DNA sequence: CGGGGCGCTGCAATAACTGCAGCAGGGCAT
DNA sequence: ATGCCCTGCTGCAGTTATTGCAGCGCCCCG
């Protein structure tokens, strides 16, 4: 789409932070790029960028304008995918920002399932904490976001919410594995590991401990759920995760998980959402529909 | 905005129905326009238009694309007005589609009030029946719509709803003018005039007559509310209108209006709305805010 | 069965854009 | 302070894209 090149150039300059740097990534000379930007600013009547000694930065007007540009560019993608869709081809790209719990089991199986039907659709999966995931939607670097216990929800349009009770994860031989449901105070008798503070599971546990007056002193803290899971088995300690991240690993025999009694720790909520007010490309919309139905079937809708 | 000329050209072709006709309105040759369209179709990979012997028509892909184009163009207007707004200038244009009742009193006074604050904002007021008003929102020929008893509300985002009880309008000397509220059966004793079928007032009255088993045989039918109002005074017959269209004409002495008892005819509802999912230009948004507050103060919110 | 509308295509003139080289200016390490 | 590097910006020349003028073939309508 050549008539969009000007605004794509501006987008590149914003991303690169300088005209010359952007010109490199765009494979044109800085002269041409500079002139186009000057022309755009001329037409707009106000400067888009502030000129700094080491590059350029968006002006106030530019902030408004770049928003419009990103909207246009990704809406154009949607249009192209819709047009491709009505000529029978199912192509496209789906970009997802999600938290760790989705990576080990849920997303791989869901993407595989979708690509079995539509092999020409490509995927991008980006690990983002709950705040960065929303930011990814805003700057159009992701079509969908899946986050656990999101902080703020401005610009976020929820497609489905499912309950995720916190589970305690342990080696199969652990004493607590004999129970079907575990009380929080029972965990206090054993060594535990916890995710670091910014994560939703930790957040729920912190509140629960404060309310119940129980202290769990973690012998291990980590920001990797995968490490916590594997270490729990290796050293026979407890850790805490949500069921969507525990696919069928718990059925292999090495590792088991048991829900914590909901009187102690309330269920967290997992959100699937998109940018508010945006019409998703066909592929992303269909994949979101698949996720919605799978989530609704596998978990309790909140 | 020169980089938008291509898509503006396409929009013009859609509106004109043929390339040559559009070229005239755009003050360019049909050659240039034709070539740009061919180039766009080349880039898009599919034809935007179907070629007919007497012009062109949108293809299926074109339908999708023109939607995107109109969005882009009017979103650009919004961006420009927002940018103008932050540099302190209050410019812009507000286009309104509304039904007849708004024309005599309400909109003139509201627009005058607004323009007193912002003299650089221009207005377009377009008379549209309740279905055409919504269509005007969809094709971006109007920013706001004010309609009485709308038929369908897809794509319509309601900003405010106010009750509009049907009033009977008559000359000051009419016997019914002595009452503060009028029952429907009382009207049956006098000659009446009615709006024609497609209008909301007529619709409400038709239902009321059927329910109450009363027949009002109109000696005059007209699609002009202004004519009905003036004729009611001239020939001393009754007619029916909603209060928002009766500003202060009724206080000049020539003409009076009295509400019909709500047991007989339920209140109609007047809707102020915009296109769903659209961010309005600053001027339109501010004017809508003014309308909302005025309506909320003068009438009963529904 | 012409006439007038339509979309489309060579060809030449024009307008727009790009790239090269070089300018001034500000931060940074010597 | 002083080169050095990177920044945005500008004349000039070459190149590319766009436009307008005729003119072609087409189909509907009278």
From TrEMBL, chains A, B:
It comes from the Bacteria. GO terms for molecular function: DNA binding; DNA-binding transcription factor activity. GO terms for cellular component: cytosol. The keyword Membrane does not apply. Gene3D superfamilies: 3.40.190.290, Winged helix-like DNA-binding domain superfamily/Winged helix DNA-binding domain. Pfam families: HTH_1 (PF00126), LysR_substrate (PF03466). The lineage of its organism: Bacteria, Pseudomonadati, Pseudomonadota, Alphaproteobacteria, Hyphomicrobiales. Belongs to the LysR transcriptional regulatory family. The keyword Transport does not apply. This is HTH lysR-type domain-containing protein. Residues 1-59 form the HTH lysR-type domain. Keywords: DNA-binding, Transcription, Transcription regulation. InterPro entries: HTH-type_LysR_regulators, LysR_HTH_N, LysR_subst-bd, WH-like_DNA-bd_sf, WH_DNA-bd_sf.
């Amino acid at each position: 789409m050549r008539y969009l090149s000007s605004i794509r150039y501006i987008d590149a300059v914003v991303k690169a932070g300088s005209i010359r740097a952007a010109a490199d990534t765009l494979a044109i000379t800085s002269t041409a790029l500079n002139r186009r930007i000057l022309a755009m600013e001329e037409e707009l009547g106000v400067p888009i960028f502030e000129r700094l000694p080491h590059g350029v930065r968006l002006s106030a007007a530019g902030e408004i304008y770049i928003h419009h540009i990103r909207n246009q560019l990704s809406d154009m993608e949607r249009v192209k995918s819709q047009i491709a869709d009505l000529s029978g081809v199912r192509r496209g790209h789906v970009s997802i920002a999600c938290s760790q719990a989705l990576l080990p089991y849920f997303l791989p199986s869901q993407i595989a399932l979708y690509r079995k039907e539509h092999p020409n659709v490509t995927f991008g999966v980006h690990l983002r904490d709950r705040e960065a995931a929303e930011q990814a939607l805003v700057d159009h670097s992701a079509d969908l976001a899946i986050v656990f216990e999101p902080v703020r929800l401005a610009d976020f349009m929820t497609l489905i919410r499912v309950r995720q009770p916190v589970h305690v994860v342990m080696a199969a031989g652990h004493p607590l594995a004999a129970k079907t449901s575990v009380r929080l105070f029972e965990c206090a008798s054993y060594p535990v590991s916890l995710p670091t503070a910014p994560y939703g599971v930790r957040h729920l546990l912190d509140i629960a401990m404060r309310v119940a007056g129980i202290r769990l002193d973690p012998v291990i803290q980590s920001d990797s759920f995968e490490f916590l899971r594997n270490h729990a088995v290796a050293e026979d300690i407890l850790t805490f995760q949500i069921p969507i991240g525990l696919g069928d690993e718990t059925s292999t025999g090495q590792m088991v998980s048991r829900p914590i009694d909901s009187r102690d720790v309330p269920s967290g909520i997992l959100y699937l959402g998109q940018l508010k007010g945006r019409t998703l490309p066909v592929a992303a919309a269909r994949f979101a529909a698949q996720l919605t139905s799978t989530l609704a079937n596998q978990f309790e809708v909140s």
